[in-house]
Task: inverse folding
């Protein structure tokens, strides 16, 4: 099973940017879609963005469209989440996860479709 590690979180002021990374170890995830989810304090986990295994298809939740960009570099076994124009409501622990299925044309958005999860990285946006 692929092991995922998130990095790049930290404190940032509103309007600022961060780039999160999700790196795989154990085996490659080049044939799996990767998703980003987040859990804010006192709230349920929510879908943020996902990218297909080939990188040609992406999904975003409405609240981050136009501000966040997901991308991947399969040669580096890494998926990125570029977060711009951050808002205090983006404060959360961000998790990446790998689709349990391989080579799906479109990336999933349901947590149940993802089988491997990282430990999370905390993003704190201050106003």
Result:
């Amino acid at each position: 099973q692929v092991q995922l590690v998130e990095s790049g979180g930290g404190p940032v002021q509103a309007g600022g940017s961060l780039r999160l990374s999700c790196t795989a170890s154990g085996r490659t995830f080049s044939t799996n879609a990767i998703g980003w989810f987040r859990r804010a304090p006192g709230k349920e986990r929510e879908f943020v963005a996902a990218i297909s295994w080939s990188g040609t298809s992406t999904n975003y939740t409405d609240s981050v469209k136009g501000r966040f960009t997901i991308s991947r570099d399969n040669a580096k076994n890494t998926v990125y989440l570029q977060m711009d124009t951050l808002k205090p409501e983006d404060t959360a622990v961000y998790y990446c996860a790998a689709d349990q299925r391989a080579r799906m044309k479109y990336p999933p958005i349901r947590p149940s479709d993802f089988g491997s999860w990282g430990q999370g990285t905390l993003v704190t946006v201050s106003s």
Notes: The CA atoms of residues 38 and 46 lie 5 Å apart.
